[in-house]
Design brief:
The protein contains ten helices and 13 strands. The protein is α/β, with parallel strands linked by helices and 320 residues long. The structure holds coenzyme A.
C-alpha cells in the first residue's frame, strides 16, 4: 500500500445548539435524544458554508503537515451538501488556499465519503499519477433537514475535516469499500426534479428522509464486518489496534461494534456528544481531534470506518 497521513485539520461552526435548545423549537427532549443516540449538542452553520469550513480545515491540515498548498497535486472533497452544483467545492478550496498545481474535484459517498476519498487518492498514488493530496469531508447538513421531522433533524450537525496524505511505503495497510444501491431508499434526499420546457415539475425543496431503524440495523451488521475484513486483509488482530475511529452516527451503534469486535469502549474515541452526525465530516473531524490531543504515537495502528447513505461503507487500517 502506498499512502500515509501527514497532517489533519477541522472546522466547526461557531453556533452550538444543545438538545435543550432544540426542545424550545420542537417537541423533543434532552432525555429522548441522549438516551437513544448519545448526542448532547451539535454545531449549526449560521455564517459558515461547506466551502468556508473546507478551506479552514484544509489550511489547518496543511499547517499540521508543514506543507505548502502549492505542493499539493490533488484535492478531493467528499460532501453531500456542497454550496453549489458548480464549480465544485474542491475547485473553490483550490482557489482559496492557492493550490495552483492541484487537480480538484468532489465526490459523493455520503457518510463513507472521507474513506472513499482516501481510496481514490491511494489509487492515484499507486498508479504513479499524483503524490500529495488533500482529502476533505465537509457538510452543512442543517440546510437539508426538515426541521419539522424530529426523528431526523436532531441527529445531524455541520462541520469539515481534512487530511493531507502522501505517497509512502508505510502507512495504509489495507482498505475496503462497498456499496448497495438496492437499499438506497432508507436514507435519501431528492435533488432538483427534471424540469424544463417539456416537463413541468414542482421544484419544492426536498429534505433528508430516513428509516432510522433500517439504517440502525444496517450499521450494526455491516460495520463490524467491514472492520474485520480490513483487519484480516492486513493480517492484524483487533487487539493490536489502538483506536477504532468510526463514523459518529449513534453511541449505541458504536457500543454494538465494540461488543461484536470484543474490544473495550475506550478504544473507540467519540465526538458525537458535541457534534452529532456530520456525514462525510465525522471521521476526519474525529481523526483531527485524536491527532491534536496527542493520542497517537508514530507506529500506532488505527482503523477508520464510515457507513451511510447509498448504502455505502468502507474501512481502512493504517499505521500512524
Ligand atoms: N424526540 C422525541 N420523540 C421522538 C423524536 C425526538 N427527537 N424522534 C422520534 N420520536 C418519537 C417517535 O415519534 C415515536 O413516537 P411514537 O412511538 O409515539 O410513534 C418514538 O419516538 C419512537 O420512534 P422511533 O423512530 O421508533 O425511535 P427509535 O427507537 O427507532 O430511535 C433513532 C430513532 C433515529 C434514534 C434510531 O432509529 C437510530 O439511531 N437509527 C440510526 C440512524 C442513523 O444513525 N442514521 C445515520 C446513519 S449514517
Amino acid at each position: 500500500m502506498t499512502m500515509k497521513i501527514r497532517g489533519t485539520g477541522s472546522s466547526l461552526p461557531e453556533k452550538a445548539v444543545s438538545n435543550d435548545d432544540l426542545a424550545k423549537i420542537m417537541d423533543t427532549s434532552d432525555e429522548w435524544i441522549r438516551s437513544r443516540t448519545g448526542i448532547g449538542s451539535r454545531h449549526i452553520a449560521v455564517n459558515e458554508t461547506t466551502t468556508s469550513m473546507s478551506v479552514d480545515a484544509a489550511q489547518k491540515a496543511l499547517a499540521d503537515a508543514k506543507m505548502g498548498a502549492e505542493e499539493l497535486d490533488l484535492i478531493i472533497v467528499a460532501s453531500i451538501s456542497t454550496d453549489q452544483c458548480l464549480p465544485s467545492t474542491a475547485c473553490e478550496v483550490q482557489a482559496a488556499i492557492g493550490a495552483v498545481n492541484a487537480v480538484a474535484f468532489d465526490i459523493n459517498a455520503a457518510c463513507s465519503g472521507f474513506l472513499f476519498g482516501l481510496s481514490v487518492a491511494n489509487a492515484y498514488f499507486a498508479a504513479g499519477t499524483y503524490e500529495k493530496a488533500l482529502v476533505i469531508g465537509a457538510e452543512t447538513l442543517s440546510k437539508m433537514m426538515d426541521w419539522n421531522d424530529r426523528g431526523t433533524c436532531v441527529l445531524f450537525g455541520d462541520g469539515a475535516g481534512a487530511a493531507v496524505v502522501e505517497k509512502s511505503d508505510i502507512g495504509l495497510i489495507s482498505m475496503i469499500q462497498q456499496s448497495d444501491g438496492t437499499r438506497g431508499g432508507v436514507l435519501s434526499c431528492r435533488n432538483r426534479p427534471v424540469n424544463n420546457p417539456y416537463v413541468q415539475n414542482d421544484t419544492a425543496l426536498a429534505f433528508t428522509k430516513m428509516d432510522g431503524q433500517e439504517v440502525y440495523k444496517f450499521a450494526v451488521r455491516t460495520v463490524p464486518k467491514a472492520v474485520s475484513q480490513v483487519l484480516e486483509k492486513g493480517n492484524v488482530s483487533a487487539d493490536e489496534v489502538k483506536y477504532f475511529i468510526l463514523h459518529q452516527a449513534n453511541i449505541r451503534i458504536i457500543d454494538s461494534v465494540a461488543k461484536r469486535l470484543s474490544q473495550p469502549l475506550d478504544k473507540f474515541p467519540t465526538n458525537l456528544q458535541t457534534c452529532g452526525n456530520i456525514s462525510a465530516g465525522s471521521v476526519p473531524i474525529l481523526l483531527d481531534y485524536v491527532n491534536r490531543e496527542g493520542m497517537l504515537m508514530r507506529g500506532d495502528k488505527i482503523v477508520l470506518a464510515g457507513f451511510g447513505a447509498g448504502l455505502t461503507w468502507g474501512a481502512a487500517l493504517l499505521v500512524w
